[in-house]
Amino acid sequence: MYIPQLNPYLFHLGPLGVRWYGFFMAISMLYGAYFIIRRGMQRGFTENALTSVAIWAIVGGVVGARLVFVFANDPGWIVSDPLQVFRIWQGGLAWDGGLLGGILLGYISARRNKLPFQALLDLAVPGLSLGYILVRIGNIFNHEVLGRFTEMGFRWPAQLIGSAIGVFLLWRFFYVDRKYKNLPDGYQFWTFNMWYQVFRALIEEAVRQNPLYGIQYVNHYLGIGFMTLEQWFSPLIFGIAYVMYVRVTRAPQHAGALLADTSMPDASQDAESPHFAQPEAPDPPEAPTHESVEEPGEGHPPGTPETPPEA
């Protein structure tokens, strides 16, 4: 979808311009962090530990997304215009690079805070889905991620198709979350990735006006093409997600740890870790007073109820 009348800037503060793309990305990050912290606290994790993991995962996601985009699209920026590498608010983030960077730094932070990493990955799905919805809308304002022309008289609205994929993934998370209980940690995240790769490769990438590599098939009437760089990498990423899906669903007691020895705390760690909310100890029972104790032979015999059961 290309609408030249749209202004990519939401507003200006002096020389600083805030783009719609960056605004939407910030909203998705804030929501993703809020959801992880809120749901994580419901599972007994502390707010400080969850906040640390969320911040590091966001940092890793942004850095990874930008670096992969630069290397895949215009690595010459590193030499000719290094500052352009840091202008993420202008657009240009690679989804798979963001996942890789977020997983890497998120895992390191979760391990340091002794939190179950796979459980946190599941909680990241709503933020990722909302981010995909909003960032694709931001692409419309930036006049990028354009669709191919067809011979039927229209151009594919690739950004809206991407947003629709995000809507489905967000709906699916909450549907599964409500309908199925006691799912293994990691199930939501890895199945989310499998669904995403299928829709991205077969639908969104097919209608996007992206360069083709290796096998170059274009149907000009339908306005679809294969194979883009993303379409080449999607089977690999799908395969990794499937392997992890099998691993977490077959793990003993559905532990679902990425690295079972380090990312999932054992019972002794749970009890002692400062990053798990500790239940308050119950008050000790009061000692019986002398007046409440009956001597044998007085009142009712020991061990018999005060009121006999009805026949």
What report would you give on this structure?
With 311 residues, the protein is mostly helical. It has one domain (14-263). 55% of the residues lie in helices and 5% in strands. The chain is built from 10 helices and 4 strands, in the order E-E-H-H-H-H-H-H-H-E-E-H-H-H. Strands 1-2 form a two-stranded antiparallel ribbon. A two-stranded antiparallel ribbon has the order 3-4. Helix 5 packs antiparallel against helix 6 (158-179), helix 5 (117-141) packs parallel to helix 7 and helix 7 packs antiparallel against helix 8. The chain is globular and about 55 Å long.
> Total helix count?
10
Overall structural class, as computed from helix and strand content, comes to mainly alpha
Low-pLDDT sequence parts: 255-272, 290-311
Count structural domains.
1
Largest sheet: 2 strands, antiparallel
Rg of Cα set: 27 Å
What is the N-to-C order of secondary-structure elements (H for helix, E for strand)? EEHHHHHHHEEHHH
Chain-averaged pLDDT: 83
Helix content: 55-70%
Quaternary class: single chain
Shape: globular
- What is the distance, rounded to the nearest whole angstrom, between the alpha carbons of the first and last residues? 81 Å
In the sheet with the most strands, the strands line up as: 1-2
Number of strands: 4
- Bin the strand percentage: under 5%
SSE layout and pairing:
Elements: E1 9-13, E2 16-19, H1 20-42, H2 47-73, H3 77-80, H4 95-112, H5 117-141, H6 158-179, H7 187-207, E3 217-219, E4 224-226, H8 229-250, H9 260-263, H10 267-272
Antiparallel strand pairs: 1-2, 3-4
